[in-house]
């Protein structure tokens, strides 16, 4: 059992943390008669009232407040204030119950219990702690959003975020905006790898082969794998033209591979509907290897008997205001009514006619299929056939694609509507896995 010293009762050195969080001995601590115990508390425990369970730990020498010790429980005292466990450091002296009573300042009504009862009390305390923490999980706002005033090396001791989430602040804003549009509020970012923009590409190389100079981000969450790439090649002004995103629900992954090819390393994701490949520079091979290992944990054969997540599919109401902006509210309602007559509609994205698009159209999401409808007719695609979901988040244009022949372009002001449909479509696709 791990215990943390709260009060060192004997003589020793007082330690504090410096600005780099390293332990530094600051001063000597005088002490009188020492009974061989420091007061501690069982780490990650709850006594039933939100407090850690107290432990008297026997030591050959007094430590300092904050020291963590692996202790063997030898028994404990039961009193009106609750149990006080007694333990020792491995190889240390066996604590004498009578001295523990004195060190704990227990009254005559306290009763001693053996190490078996102490182990059981510790187990229950850990269970109460986990139950309490499960109710205290992040649920307000974005759980993955770790941005704040504290630097990551300090904030990680105070808030429950992953290293990847703390590091999001280092990413270009356009990548973070892409994540904000596509992550659920309670989703968690597990790992990401950034591909830097190529700024020095020789003319001969550009002529011989098509070189993708755009910056990119490969991000893994507990629900999806996202490949986020700059929408346009960088220009001389390094303008922010938004990003293109391709995502795969993590439940759909059946295999993952990694191979080096010349100066690149390629991550291969196999799903029931096809294969996706993401290419990064070879100097990122170690990071790609970590990504591969994390993805492998989600493959059904590796997940063991863990229960599979099932998403609740809540229909998104159509907001006619987006069609009214283009004076085509009537056309939108005609397409929607026709879709509703065919069955359940989870989401409806309207694309008005405009220069470059002669007819109004709409993308319709159903629990197990997608439909592209216009005045000329309707085409459909089952969700099981979707290899990946592609989305453009750019001030120039909005675009959605779910596979060959199933895509929709829409004006940039409707980007949020497209992202909303994608989040729901990802859940519906994941439920089919």
Query: What can be said about the biggest beta sheet?
Result: 7 strands, antiparallel
**Any idea what the CATH superfamily of the largest domain is called?**
Inorganic pyrophosphatase
Strand content: 25-35%
Write down the overall geometry: elongated
Text of the CATH class of the largest domain: Alpha Beta
Alpha carbon gyration radius: 30 Å
Mean pLDDT over the full residue set: 84
Strand order of the largest sheet: 9-10-11-12-20-21-22
State the share of residues found in helices, binned by percent: 10-25%
Query: How many distinct beta strands?
Result: 22
Oligomer: single chain
- CATH domain topology of the largest domain: Inorganic Pyrophosphatase
Architecture per CATH nomenclature, i.e. the level-2 architecture of the largest domain: Alpha-Beta Complex
From the N-terminal CA to the C-terminal CA, the straight-line distance is 40 Å
- Domain count: the total is 3
**Unreliable segments (pLDDT under 50, ≥5 consecutive)?**
202-209
Structure at a glance:
The chain has 10 helices and 22 strands. The chain has 433 residues and is an alpha+beta fold.
Can you describe this structure?
The chain is an alpha+beta fold. It folds into three domains: 2-135, Inorganic pyrophosphatase (Inorganic Pyrophosphatase, Alpha-Beta Complex); 152-157 and 186-302, PH-domain like; 321-431, PH-domain like. 23% of the residues lie in helices and 33% in strands. The protein is built from ten helices and 22 strands. A seven-stranded antiparallel sheet has the order 9-10-11-12-20-21-22, sandwiched between helices. A five-stranded mixed barrel has the order 1-4-5-7-6. A four-stranded antiparallel sheet has the order 16-17-18-19, sandwiched between helices. Strand 21 (398-403) and strand 22 (406-410) form a beta hairpin. The two termini are 40 Å apart. Mean pLDDT is 84; it is low at 202-209.
